[in-house]
Amino acid sequence: MADLALYLSMAVIGYFFGSKLRNHETLIRWTGRLQTFAIIILIFSMGMRMGANREVVENLNSIGLYALIMSISIILFSIITMTAVRKLMRIDRFGNLQSKEDRGGMVQEMTSETEIKTEGDADEESSDNKMNFMTAIIVLCVAGGLLFGHFCIPHIFSDMEVFSNLINVMINAGLCVLLFFVGFDMGVDGTAMQHFRQVGVRVFLFPVAVMAGTLIGAVVCVPILSEISLQEALAVGGGFGWYTFAPGLIMEAGLVTASAICFMHNVMREFISILIVPLVAKKIGYLEAMAVPACSSMDVCLPIIERSTRSDIAIYSFISGVVQSAAVPIVVPLILRLG
Question: Model's pTM, two decimal places?
Answer without folding.
Answer: 0.73
